[in-house]
Amino acid sequence: MKNYEFWFLVGSQELYGQEVLDIVAERSQEMAAELSKKLPYPLVYKDTVKSSAQVDKLIKEANYDDNCAGIITWCHTFSPSKMWLNGFELLQKPYCHVATQYNEEIPNEEIDMDFMNLNQAAHGDREHGFIAARLRMPRKIIAGYWKDEKVAKRLGDWMKVAVGADFSKHLNVMRFGDNMRDVAVTEGDKIEAQRKFGWQVNTWAVGDLVKEMKAVTDEEVEALFEEYKAEYDINTDDIAAIKYQAREEIAMQKMLEANDCHAFANTFQDLYGMEQLPGLASQHLMSKGYGYGGEGDWKVAAMTAILKAMGEGGNGASAFMEDYTYNLVDGKEYSLGAHMLEVCPSLAAEKPRIETHFLGIGMNEKDPARLVFEGKPGKAVVCTLIDMGGRFRLVCQDIEVVKPIYEMPNLPVARVMWKALPDLTTGIECWITAGGAHHSVLSYDVTAEMLREWATIMDVEFVHIGEGSCPAKLAEELMIKDLIWKLK
Length: 488
Description:
It is a single chain. The chain is an alpha/beta fold. Helix content is 39%, strand content 23%. The chain has helices at 18-36, 52-63, 82-90, 113-118, 121-134, 149-169, 190-197, 206-215, 218-231, 239-258, 280-287, 298-310, 424-433, 448-458, 471-487, and strands at residues 5-11, 43-49, 68-75, 95-99, 140-143, 172-176, 200-204, 233-234, 263-265, 291-293, 318-329, 332-338, 353-356, 369-372, 378-387, 392-402, 415-420, 439-443, 461-465. Helix 10 crosses helix 11 (280-287).
């Protein structure tokens, strides 16, 4: 990850005199320094903006500074909005407007006209907000006292979203082979994806991977095997299968690094020259922050990488996921998510164990090793990106992960069980109404609000399923959105 930072631009004007401007600058630096202690990335005070030329200069610098992931503005005093117009028209970075003020409460004895002239955020921010509304700018607005923990939390979440947007713009996805045959939802317009999201999605032959696997040394395999032993419990006697997965992982990571790729996809239908579908290999790569998509699903591979980058520490608890089966017993309605091999151990409630089992699908010559575990309980989301033809749609659903209500001793894969909101059947109907894919990304770190902001920055349609969702109302909403997006 880059050394990301966010620029703090504070609005004012020359009208108030140098003494007031000095106070504004001093307070702004204090706010940036104090907030930075609570935020995931530094907030850097750049200047108190007092003219159009100053705005233009700072915006141009922000656009071309690779470490600047976005700008955050606030108007301590009244800042005439016309002087921001040209700069905002040039802005290419994510933008957040924090509507706050230096003092938490109105000082009964101190308040006079000098105080009023200095502390004009209440209408300065409204003037500032108008020009962004007039320009139809995508933006995040956060109102509240700047020392409030809730404000810092929301600002920090937005920073992670902005980092996810920058990460997306430079994301390369490696496809080993093509998509699973005859599947509709894993297809998509790669040119539009590159134009909209920045992703470069290209294919490498499985034969290239096999060649790289042959070049991996036994010493490299043994070293990774030792990592596996330290991180996971080994619950199989088939050590050769584990070491084969290590060989696959080393080869894939070398190819990913050589081609600057941070996400990959493969399919069980294309394993030419390989003994096993990468299972443990894919899971361990995901634990390092790589995105993954099964059956050639490059969209979910990219989204997994992006949500990981948006998570805690730049590699959060997010994973490739698939709805596998339901529990439809009245009062015990749950969805069971899993995949044949590849679920990231960042979701695990306890230390995962390595097991080998027969995989009755694909072209495996031998039983693949994989990590088996239960997902940890907690609030989460599942999201999926689909190509609607002419535009992309990001579908997000709120869920609550629970400890599985069954032990399922014969299920040889990682599994996550959750309660869908508003309830299972309504959630299913809404998801299908929106065209949600069977592949998704499950995340404990990224919220629906964060995904909405990411969709806003990337200029794609967003659909949120949660408490209060209704299939009939959603169908009407989607019909209206369809008309709106066709006009854009």
